[in-house]
Amino acid sequence: MDSMFGSYFQDSLGALKRIPDDLKRYLGHSPDKMARGILGPAHDTVMMGARMVGPQADVADYVDFTQDAVTAAKQGRYGDAVTNSLFGAAAIPFMFLPGGVTAWHGGPTPWKPEPDFPQGRMNLKYMGEGEGRQAYGWGGYMGEAKGTGKSYQEGLGAGRGAGPEDTAKRILDAADGDRARAVEIAESRLATAAKLPPENRAAGGNLEAALNILKGEGHVGGVLYKLDLPDADAAKFLDWDAPLSEQPLMAKKIREMLDGPDNPYTGPTTKMLRESLQDFELGSTTGETLIRIMGGDQAASEALRKAGIPGLKYYDQMSRTPKNRGYIVTGGPMRMSFDTMKEAKAFIKKHPNIKQTITSDRTRNFVVWDQDVLNRTKILDRQ
After folding, report:
1. Do the beta carbons of residue 290 and residue 240 sit within 8 Å?
2. Run of H or E residues at 330
3. In the Cβ-directed half-sphere of 147, how many Cα atoms lie within 13 Å?
4. Among 157, 165, 161, 164, residue whose Cα is nearest residue 203
5. Could you list the pLDDT tens digit for every one of the 383 residues in the chain?
6. Nearest Cα residue to 137 out of 371, 369, 373
7. N or C, which terminus of the chain has less Cβ within 10 Å?
8. 323 with 329: CB under 8 angstroms?
9. In sequence order, what are the beta bridge partners of 107?
10. Do β-strands 311-315 and 238-239 pair in parallel, antiparallel, or remain unpaired?
11. At what angle do helices 78-95 and 31-39 cross, to 10 degrees?
């Protein structure tokens, strides 16, 4: 088992002193009772680790856990065998999850149809440069909040300039999106322009080109996509905001990248990454720490992709304001907000007589730098 998981195994070592004699007392019992008996006080610690690892695990991780469990059992290391089994079992529900995360992407023009992708797709081959990519890494951007995608649709799409596409977009907006009505408005304006003196007909050519655009079948203005990002892929994303102590599989994969023969980083960068990984259990290292050390460019995204990390998730701007603290506890007329789930659960524990629920009012953005993940992302709607 990788040393990065050491904190979840240390407490189980004491249980080994009671094995194998105590093991006989648990044969035939339920798996949970057997695990509690073997691990003793370490059981809750191991389960906490399993709950954090499970959502980030994939089939390969499950196989590793299972194989390590079998090896440990053959060697008489029953505490490690049960621990690996619990980690593997925690991964099962997340390996083939249906559905996905609903996300929005806004841009200036629709994606071009391609073989096997009749509606187009987000294609990294056409990625440009932008503020978001500089801040959070190179890749395709999308977000849970529709308003974020809408702002990019309006900000990058036609309608603000003086060209024919902009004129066509403004006329279409005036017609409330009714294409036939927009054509009527354009024809009326063009007829009015034709009656003007020759020296005042400069806008006529622009209007005529805009009319041809409106009469065509092409999309006018910016576009907003509603997407279905697979849960199984999103679970493997590095979390910009969370400490690595809460995303141990990410730390494990980056450590393996640095120890492997294809490590793209040398000298000071590798040294800083290793030091950050050594501090991860203290909670001082976050996903942001790693991205900033790696540089956040295309080379960093490619290195993370090869390490088995296909993208990044981070809270959007509205979710970082003091008003949106993240976790809301409601019960009757009461409404309390907390920065972390741990704080919210602690509050509920102190007030057991009040029926309460926890919800999150935060939304995330995603950066995807793995083309295979983008190929699996479905288009639910286009506006």
Report:
1. no
2. strand 327-331
3. 6
4. 164
5. 444 444 444 444 444 444 455 555 555 555 566 667 666 666 677 677 676 666 666 666 766 777 777 777 777 777 777 777 777 777 665 555 445 688 999 887 788 889 999 999 999 987 764 344 467 889 999 998 888 888 887 777 655 666 777 787 788 778 887 888 888 888 888 888 777 776 665 555 677 877 787 787 666 777 899 999 988 888 889 999 888 877 878 888 898 899 888 888 878 888 899 888 876 555 668 888 889 999 888 889 999 999 999 999 998 887 765 455 556 666 655 556 666 666 777 776 776 666 566 555 678 899 999 999 999 999 999 88
6. 369
7. C
8. no
9. 223
10. parallel
11. 140
- Residues pairing with 238 in the sheet: 312
Question: CA-to-CA distance for 122 and 120, rounded, in angstroms?
Answer: 7
Q: Are 224 and 153 in contact (CB under 8 A)?
A: yes
Q: Which two tokens stand for residue 299?
A: 């080379």
- Compute the C-alpha angle 196/199/205, nearest 5°: 75
Q: How far apart are CA 108 and CA 157, in angstroms?
A: 4
The answer to whether 66 touches 91, Cβ cutoff 8 Å, is no
Query: Are residues 194 and 202 in contact, defined by beta-carbon separation less than 8 angstroms?
Result: no
Retrieve residue 373's tokens: 């993940």
Residue type, position 71, single letter: T
* CA angle 94–135–259, rounded 5-degree value: 55
Q: Which residues contact 108 (CB under 8 A, 6 or more apart)?
A: 156, 157, 158, 222, 223
Q: Which two tokens stand for residue 233?
A: 């892929």
What distance in Å separates the CA atoms of residue 91 and residue 85, rounded to the nearest whole number? Answer: 10
Helix (H) or strand (E) holding 105: strand 100-107
